[in-house]
Amino acid sequence: MFSSEDVNLSLLRSRAFNQRWASVPEGVIPLTAADPDFPCAEPIREAISRYASDGYFSYGAPKGLLEFRQALSIDYIENKKVQYSPEKILPVDSAAFGIYLTCKSLLNPGDEAIVFDPVDFLFRHSVESVGGKAIPFAIPPGTDYVDFSTLEQYITPKTKMICLCNPLNPTGKVFTRVELIHLAEIAERHDLAILSDEIWSDIVFKPFQFTSLASIDQSIQNRTVTITGFSKSYGLAGLRIGAILTSNETYFKKIYSTSRHESTVHGSNVIGQIAAKTALNECRWWLINFIIHLQKMRDLCVSELNSINGFNCIAPQGCYVAFANITKTGMSSEAMHNYLLEEAKVAVVPGVKKWFGEGANGYIRLSFATSEQILTEALSRIKNSIK
Ligand SMILES: Cc1ncc(COP(=O)(O)O)c(C=O)c1O
Fold first, then answer.
1. Does domain 50-282 have CATH number 3.40.30.10?
2. Every domain of the chain and the residues it spans
3. Distance CA 362, CA 353 (A)
4. Which terminus of the chain is less hemmed in, N or C, by CB atoms within 10 Å?
5. Is 102 exposed, middle or buried (0-12, 13-18, 19+ CB in 10 A)?
6. Residue 226 Cβ contacting ligand 1 at under 6 Å
7. Handedness of CA 343, 347, 348, 352 (dihedral sign)
8. 275-310 pLDDT, tens digit each
9. d(CA 187, CA 197)
10. Span 96-120, mean pLDDT?
């Protein structure tokens, strides 16, 4: 399922955008956006074909397909130890939109939200798009234990929300229960909402374990808006499907009315919901095998990166991205990105503010959700070019 024969490069070259095969020059291997090189699980393809063969693509329910919400509710109970009623799960057209919609619903212009640094650009982008101010909280790569008490110095009367990304893209940190309890106490003390982006929650490597913030207790669950998606675990990025889960009635009402699903201005497409429902109900075995493959690719990637002069990479605990420190090469992240593109014909994501915040300076990010053959080729090109 995850060998190079399974990677259809000619299709990827015409379909995989967002800095990947369809966006890079011929001959370049893109270890860029975190989007697997593998086709999705067979049951998902079959479910989409069955649905499509009926020929009806009528308007879906504004609150989303009940079977999808039920499947996600069960998944959260069984795998994340959190109970969400399907009534308070809102399918949205991507986790990215879920983050934006939550910011739009819970922040007013001028409000402040704490955003980790480094972290995926979507958090700062969403906070700022709704007129809020993103306040960076540094969690340097390799931090074993985050002392969240230092976060309190960034809280002002304008602070309304903390954006948690767990597991943390791009450093791959998986927050421990103890860290999350501490974060929850701070949110309680300052009466803050927490946006918990858990899109990476399935991609966790042994022996680390994912803890969903809302599983800590009912009180923190009530101030949490959880966001999930299907781009990472099941390779469904182009279907633009995700979901927002909360147990807080007030949050749900605000999010739902802000979503404009009722007016059909926005809405989650039915095919995406069919695919995501099938992923949850029928494709856990595929996910387990994907994680086994990823764990091997992680080890390969980290050990090869560490064998390159001037590179240093800590093994990620979760996420399928390696975040390598390249400061000892004497090059900046941007210069290294350009050099690797030109000399090694490998595209990586540079650790620049635009993508991850100031804290990513001196790093590059590489996705390893590909076959062993492609990854080996890309890493050997990088190694040879640095020599
Ligand atoms: C932390 C995080 N949240 C959200 C997303 C976006 O997910 P989606 O494709 O569902 O918009 C990504 C994609 O890289 C991500 O890393």
1. no
2. 4-40+284-386, 50-282
3. 11
4. C
5. buried
6. no
7. positive
8. 999 999 999 999 999 999 999 999 999 999 999 999
9. 16
10. 98
Question: Which pLDDT tens digit goes with each residue over 246-264?
Answer: 999 999 999 999 999 999 9
Nearest-10 crossing angle of helices 122-129, 95-106: 40
- Which tokens go with 46? 């079959």
3-state secondary structure 252-281: HHHHHHHHCCCCCCCCCCHHHHHHHHHHHH
Q: What is the strand order of the sheet 224-229 is part of?
A: 89-92, 242-246, 224-229, 193-197, 159-165, 112-117, 133-138
Q: How many CB atoms lie within 10 A of CB 140?
A: 11
Pocket test for ligand 1, best of 225, 231, 233 (most atoms within 8 A of CB): 231
- The architecture in CATH of the region 4-40+284-386 reads Alpha-Beta Complex (3.90)
Distances from the Cα of 94 to the Cα of 90, 278, 379, angstroms: 11, 17, 31
Q: What is the C-alpha separation between 9 and 238, in angstroms, rounded?
A: 17
| Single-letter residue type at 198 | E
Angle of helix 270-282 relative to helix 42-53, nearest 10 degrees? 140
- Asked if residue 169 has its Cβ within 6 Å of ligand 1, the reply is yes
Dist. CA 309 → ligand 1 center (Å): 32
Nearest to 101 by CA among 271, 256, 269: 256
pTM of the model: 0.98
Q: What is the DSSP string of 138-150?
A: E--TT-SS--GGG
Please choose from 19, 40, 93, 232 the residue to mutate so as to test ligand 1's pocket, defined by most ligand atoms within 8 A of CB: 232
Per-residue tokens: 53: 């063969």
Ligand 1 atom 14: the closest Cα is on which residue? Answer: 34
Q: Closest ligand 1 atom, CA of 35?
A: 14
Q: Does 34 contact ligand 1 (Cβ within 6 A)? A: yes
Residues 82 and 221 sit within 8 Å (Cβ to Cβ): yes
Q: Is the Cβ atom of 241 under 6 angstroms away from ligand 1? A: no
Nearest 10 degrees: Cα torsion 12, 125, 94, 83: 130
Q: Quick one: pLDDT at residue 387?
A: 82
* pLDDT tens column, 313-365: 999 999 999 999 999 999 999 999 999 999 999 999 999 999 999 999 999 99
